[in-house]
Amino acid sequence: MCGICGWVSKSLKPNNLSDMMDIMNHRGPDDFGSFIDGVTAFGHRRLSIIDINKGSQPMESIRGNVIVFNGEIYNYIELRVELINKGHRFKTDSDTEVILAAYEEWGYRCLDRFNGMFGFAIYDRIKRQIFLARDRLGKKPLYYYHEKGLFAFASELKSLLTLPQIHQAISINPYAISDYLSLGYILTPKTIFKDVKRLEASNYGVYDISTGAFKINQYWNLRDFFLAEKQNFNLDRQIKGFMEIFEDAVKIRLRSDVPLGGFLSGGLDSSSIITLMEKFSTTNVQAFNIGFTDKSFDESVYARAAALNIKVDLNIENYESPDVNMLSKLIWHFDEPFADTSLIPVFQLNRLTAKILKVALSGDGADEILAGYPTYLADYYYNNVYSKIPLIIQKLLSKTVKTITSPSYKKVSIDYKINQFLGSAGLSPQRAHYWWRVIFSDNEKMAIMSQELYNECKDYDPFDQFNRYFDEVRGAGFLDSCLYVDIKTWLQDDILVKVDRMSMANSVEIRCPFLDYRLVEYAAMLPTEAKFRLNNQKYILKEAMKGHLTKTTLKRKKAGFNSPTKDIGMNRLRKNPLFSSDFSLNRKKEDITFKSFNLAVLDKWMDLFDNYKASGKWERLKYY
User: Which of 13, 113, 201, 612 is buried most, with the most CB atoms less than 10 Å from its CB?
Assistant: First the structure.
């Protein structure tokens, strides 16, 4: 795993490239390298995993093409053999060199061949162009800036922010603020800054050095698999097909020149991964878990039971509530406002892992491809029960329950779930699904924003992007439509952002077998009953893992990895030109866990941004 950066510019100097690389040292503390050819520059920070001794970057091919690469190509061994048979010769055993050779053999269509997670850039000397690409699901990030004679790219926003031209031009994107207040994250391709964008998952871009034109194309479309003709339900046959891919997905993710471990919550997803790791590993498997003193958040007792059953070593540390300086440090790593409360234990989990290993497997992605979240159950009851009740009664019920319940502040408590569910009164099924993710309502956002900021984004609704994704799979069943939308939004812009930043903050690489594109495609084409059966969600995975996992593990309800943040949240924002200090939260009337954390992150991010505008440096702040 690594950090990449580069530019095409007539004015930037080598020291600017050094600044871009240095600020991403955490992504690659093992090695670094740079390449400059006239107006083109590439930089790289390396976390050495494959071919430790010979895999340094930037890497140049015999033909003179140059690559910087962040990620892993898991099927590089098979591709290497195929390319050798076509006449290619290799100087290293790295997957990086395989990407270069594949590009020279197949051009842009090389992307169809890669099974992995990646963000990379290739400088083609002959064509005088930069070829940028990002993996199918968006595991690895890639940002770019294309304005006023400068084209620049990087794995993290902070790397781009070191460039003087970007510092001078940068301004906050009001639409991104609207996304953030609604959802706690920002929807791709937007970033918090107007002129900086994210390359979307499953996309590649080509920058023409001679003309300055930049064109983006999509090379893989998940919608095709959701809209494909469904398989008839046949449990035995579909378990066999699922497990063939799943086992291989785990097996090829064990390819590494350094030891690997895995995260273990004791739930179905992580226990399934650890079980297959133990089956295919030649060494003892190390598993990792974060425990909580608040029992409603703690999963360590389940992790211990699962580790004992699977016969792996388990490493546990207790959750530590962050002070304001630690919170600011974590926000610095994200570069943008980001308010998933699980970011704190995910950081601590990776910090624990880094003491022993620098590669770990995770169960991320199973809920999105196999309908594991409680929201899908809520969708079912909304569409089949609640929406059938007269609207006047829905609204009366919502108001009454909100009045008589008091917040318990347990982990995603039942009172929070009920109020969120009933608050969807009168919404379309699509907007109701979106509503489960909403933190601040439109009226609340209007009260939080200054009048000027509100005027800039009042005609923008984050739901419109969700609705476009719903339209893309028009004709699919409603559950499949929701899965597609969540993969394009929640997975890409929340889950995978969190996993990447918090692992890279600790120089740890995370691999996700459930996000093997073959498994994602297979799951998309499965009939609904193979994934969702009311209170028996992720049905095919549970059936496939019978005999491997205990009944307790198989029957455990989805718990999530949230953290208790009510003591580090804020009831109101400090007044500044973008926000009003008149809006405040009442922790006695509603569970403000997610809202107060959202405001706290936004407040500390504004401190970082104000300091950056004044100093030109994106740097960690100390409050005491």
Answer: 201
